[in-house]
Amino acid sequence: MTLTLPQQLAIHGGTPIAAAINKPVWPPVSPATAERLKDIYLTGKWSFGAAEEQAFSQEFAEYHGAKYGIFMANGTVTLQCALQAYEIGPGDEVIVPALTWIATAMAVLEVGATPVFVDIEKSTLCLDPALLEAALTPRTRAIIPVHILGGMADLDAILEIAERNNLIVIEDCAHGHGGKWKNRGLGSWGHVGSFSFQQTKTMASGEGGICITSDERIAERLYCLKHIGYGPHATQGKAATTPNTDLQCHNYRATEFQAVILRDQLKELPELMEKYQANAARLETLLQDVPGIRIQAKGRCATTQNYYGWSFQLGEEFDGIPFEDVENALKAEGLECSGTYGPVYDHLLWNIAPERYRVPEGGCPVADIISTQCTVAMAHFWLGSDEATIEAIAAAITKVALNADALRAAHAERELEAVG
Ligand SMILES: *Cc1c(COP(=O)(O)O)cnc(C)c1O
Questions:
Q1: Cα dihedral sign for 347, 357, 193, 299?
Q2: Which of 126, 148, 161, 382 is the most core-located residue (most Cβ within 10 A)?
Q3: Strands 140-143 and 93-97
């Protein structure tokens, strides 16, 4: 993109880029899926464990390189069950990244264990393995790396540390559908991979989640945990055995309707991932020479990139401008974007007493600064846009970046007015 003199920002009265921005439909809807849903409705086989769920669980697990898939109600209880399957509970500590959706840490609390927050890497926004070992104690039992937004956690380093310290690794892949690391699916590298199918995710059925694993014993335990103690081969109402006494089981089952929707989406996933990757690459090319724009790093060994979002960080060119002003300027151009979650322990919905979790001394400065003061994220579905929209997105970001001085001046002026 040629950099010419900046046009006036929409927020300062200029013409917005918006006209060229064409929002893709999310979640995707298809008449063929609607027909299949109608069939299920008419047969009355609505609940769990039927043909579509069995096929989907198997197909999803295989796609991601694991043997077993255990379909559940959402991507929070999947994390919780994964912890329970390994008997992680009161007295145990579990490492979670400081930047993630609160569910990752809430699941740890839900089983009675203590979440221990570790800061993130600036480049990928994922758990920083260099800080991991310092956070371990004799009580640490597990690590939950999160492959966040459009980045992958450093599995090489994390798995090595886990193995050396005899720790369980549960990959939170709520942002990881379809992602492949060294050509094998995310979620199959740790002991268990946990995915969410909540409405905003890259595969969506309104609500839903799945655990994948290649360990048969753990797969059985996960199934018992979500299905009030019945194993995968039991007939409901005819319990043949009592679940192990170390398992307190639940009803976290999902329905056949969700499985139908997801099974159809899984067929489209490779194509969707290709499109996302091509458009992300195009955006990177368009923005590579724009001052102050740094794209989130993907992860060292990504062969297929996961995208829950597409994000970039603001460089020092934006110093002295409140993040909100940049966000508002982008929005005025027509770009739907936001900051990230921020550190879990600062989230408005985190109402947990400080003695129930641990934050390292000095806090998590990277998660704090990067995620609240300079990371701009867009929902993944924008990567499914047509060519003109991708160019308009890049144009809007470029326009705001080239107008950093105007934003800084407007901010300084407001400050003066406030004082005067
Ligand atoms: C969405 C999400 C979850 C939880 O999934 P739900 O299905 O909403 O319960 C867990 N971890 C991360 C990182 C998420 O984004």
A1: positive
A2: 148
A3: parallel
Task: Verify whether ligand 1 is closer than 6 Å to residue 174 (CB atom).
Answer: yes
Residue 242 DSSP code: P
Please give the chain's pLDDT, 420 residues, in tens. Answer: 455 556 899 999 999 998 888 899 999 999 999 999 999 999 999 999 999 999 999 999 999 999 999 999 999 999 999 999 999 999 999 999 999 999 999 999 999 999 999 999 999 999 999 999 999 999 999 999 999 999 999 999 999 999 999 999 999 999 999 999 999 999 999 999 999 999 999 999 999 999 999 999 999 999 999 999 998 888 777 778 888 888 999 999 999 999 999 999 999 999 999 999 999 999 999 999 999 999 988 888 889 999 999 999 999 999 999 999 999 999 999 999 999 999 999 999 999 999 999 999 999 999 998 877 889 999 999 999 999 999 999 999 999 999 999 999 999 999 999 887
Nearest atom, ligand 1, residue 79 CA: 10
In which region does residue 311 sit, left (phi positive, over 0), alpha (psi from -120 to 50) or beta (all else)?
beta
Alpha carbon distance 402, 292 (integer Å) = 9
Q: How far is the CA of 411 from the centre of ligand 1 (A)?
A: 36
Q: What are phi and psi of 323, to 5 degrees?
A: -55, -40
Residue 205 Cβ contacting ligand 1 at under 6 Å = no
Smallest CA-to-CA distance from 145 within 137, 161, 134 is with 161
Helix and strand tally (H, E) in the chain?
12, 13
Neighbours of 3 (CB within 10 A): 11
From the list 342, 180, 371, 195, the residue with the least C-alpha distance to 276 is 180
Q: Is 201 a catalytic residue?
A: yes
Q: Judge contact between 346 and 98, C-beta under 8 A.
A: no
Q: What is the CA radius of gyration of the chain?
A: 23
Top mutation candidate among 102, 152, 194, 196 for ligand 1, by most atoms within 8 Å of CB? 196
